[in-house]
Write a structure and sequence with these properties.
The protein folds into two domains: about 5-170, Alpha/beta knot; about 190-250. Strands 3-2-1-6-4-7-5 form a seven-stranded parallel beta sheet. The N and C termini lie far apart (about 65 Å). The protein has helices at about 20-30, 45-55, 60-65, 70-75, 95-110, 130-135, 155-170, 190-205, 215-230, 230-250; strands spanning about 10-15, 35-40, 65, 80-85, 95, 120-125, 140. α1 packs parallel to α7 (about 155-170). It has ten helices and seven strands. The longest helix is centred in the C-terminal third of the chain and has 21 residues, at about 230-250. The radius of gyration is 30 Å and the shape is elongated. With about 260 residues, it is of the alpha/beta class.
């Protein structure tokens, strides 16, 4: 599914009471590729103050539409999903954001192609959520799984989680991490043996072994390094650290006695 399908989705907030939640909603939308917001009878709408909370979101606030009634805000929509935390006794088509996301994107793609109206994600007011009358306008209700002892989410958080699931479905999952700026091959046996030799020399220099058995200690060091699987550049870096320990002591203290050779 293409990210373009996200353009066929509108977020509808009904009777919001706090501009901070509106700002959080806009920020979440911007984070996850949604750009169409409709506000129905908001208690406050001040784009300047909203953008002061949700930075770099002017494109979303400038496009935001205001409506005087919920039916008017949903009139052109072909599919409406009501987001609710409460379980209703009445029989309704229910779903979860993650499972429903692919279907919503398919419907939204039809809207982008001009074959249908947009898909609406309807969120209710902060204190009461969506009324039964508002849910009557919805084709399906969706709940976000949460702790049953405290299942009511903050409005902006609910938008964020829903937008995230849509984004993941639209982009095919999490993108790969950026590769390192400089790739290096795995460290060779020769490079690792040089590292172990310099590590042992450094440990002798700082008098680490004392009563410890050198062979057993170095075997532990070997096991640690082998588990880490350093590449050639990392092994060289670790070796340089060990060499610098020895050089530092030579410069600042002067070695009266040369540390024993590794294995000696």
């Amino acid at each position: 599914m293409s990210r373009d399908a996200l353009g066929g989705i509108v977020v509808v907030l009904w009777q919001t009471q706090d501009r901070v939640n509106v700002a959080g909603t806009i920020r979440a939308m911007k984070n996850f590729g949604l750009s169409r917001l409709r506000l129905v009878q908001p208690a406050e709408w001040d784009p300047y103050r909203i953008e002061g909370i949700a930075h770099d979101t002017h494109d979303v606030t400038a496009r935001t539409e205001l409506f005087g009634s919920l039916p008017a805000a949903l009139a052109d929509c072909a599919y409406v999903v009501g987001m609710t935390a409460r379980e209703r006794r009445s029989k309704r088509a229910v779903g979860r954001p993650r499972l429903l996301a692919p279907e919503l994107l398919e419907r939204a793609a039809a809207a982008v192609a001009g074959e249908a109206g947009p898909v609406a994600l309807l969120f209710g007011r902060e204190d009461h959520g969506l009324s039964n009358e508002a849910l009557d306008l919805c084709h399906r209700s969706v709940t976000i799984p949460a702790n049953p002892e405290h299942s009511s989410l903050n409005l902006a958080q609910a938008v964020l989680l829903t937008a995230y699931e849509l984004w993941m479905a639209a982009t095919g999952g999490a993108p790969p991490f950026k590769p390192p700026r400089r790739a290096a091959p795995p460290a060779s046996v020769e490079q690792l043996e040089l590292l172990f030799a310099d590590a042992e020399r450094a440990l002798w220099t700082v008098d680490f072994f004392k009563s410890r058995q050198t062979e057993a200690t170095m075997r532990t060091v070997r096991n640690l390094i082998h588990r880490a699987e350093p590449d050639a550049r990392e092994a060289t870096f670790l070796r340089a650290m060990c060499i610098e320990v020895v050089r530092f002591f030579e410069r600042t203290q002067g070695a009266e006695e040369t540390p024993p050779s590794p294995g000696g």
